Amino acid sequence: MRQLIVDGYNTIHAWPSLRAVLRQGGLEEARGGLISRLSAYAAVRNFDITVVFDGRRRSPATQPAEVVDGITVIFSGGAGESADHCIERLCAEAARRGEAASVLVATADRLQRDMVGAMGVGTISAADLEADVDAAVVEVSTAARRLSEADRFRGRMENRIDAKARARLERLRRGG
């Protein structure tokens, strides 16, 4: 399974919908919105997703990574580690294991994309990730609508009768 590492606050500020949530509902609500959207995306695109947020007031020893709606959430911290440093560390570890090609980093930070790209890790801009997340949501709702329609027709009596019996019944209905 491919791993997607998302620069959390960077992505929140890059997505217009989450910027609006940030202004109206605050940081916690914006983080929740990002995690919620990424959770649905992970299921559709088959990604193992990690979101990294700056958390300088938190220590990784006291706040280990947690899993929220299937998304691994990490707050950087301790020894002055920023989210960027944490992402670079995760990418370097993947490169050492020979797994850099299976990792993708999403950020609007061009320097960050260049840094991890030099390690052999793929990158995607936050804007392109948002477009792909939106496309995945449309795919899911389209598939759900098709299944719902198929179930509705599957349940009709006329669809469960063979064609010969249906024709006989139709002749009877018409008086013949």
Give the name of the CATH architecture: 3-Layer(aba) Sandwich
- Judged by helices, strands and strand pairing, the structural class is alpha/beta
Biggest pleated-sheet summary = 6 strands, mixed
Number of strands: 6
- The residue fraction in helices comes out at 55-70%
- As laid out across the biggest beta sheet, the strand order is 3-4-2-1-5-6
What is the gyration radius calculated from CA atoms? 24 Å
Report what the structure shows.
This protein has a single domain, classed as Rossmann fold. The mean pLDDT is 87. Helix 1 packs across helix 2 (16-25), helix 2 (16-25) runs antiparallel to helix 3 and helix 3 (27-45) crosses helix 6 (126-154). The protein is 56% helix and 16% strand. The longest helix is centred in the last third of the chain and has 29 residues, at 126-154. The protein is built from seven helices and six strands; from the N terminus they run E-H-H-H-E-E-E-H-E-H-E-H-H. A six-stranded mixed β-sheet has the order 3-4-2-1-5-6, sandwiched between helices. With 176 residues, the chain is α/β, with parallel strands linked by helices. The N and C termini lie far apart (62 Å). A hairpin with a 2-residue loop joins strand 3 and strand 4.
What order do the helices and strands come in, and which of them pair?
Elements: E1 2-7, H1 8-14, H2 16-25, H3 27-45, E2 47-53, E3 66-68, E4 71-75, H4 83-96, E5 103-106, H5 110-117, E6 122-124, H6 126-154, H7 163-173
Parallel strand pairs: 1-2, 1-5, 2-4, 5-6
Antiparallel strand pairs: 3-4
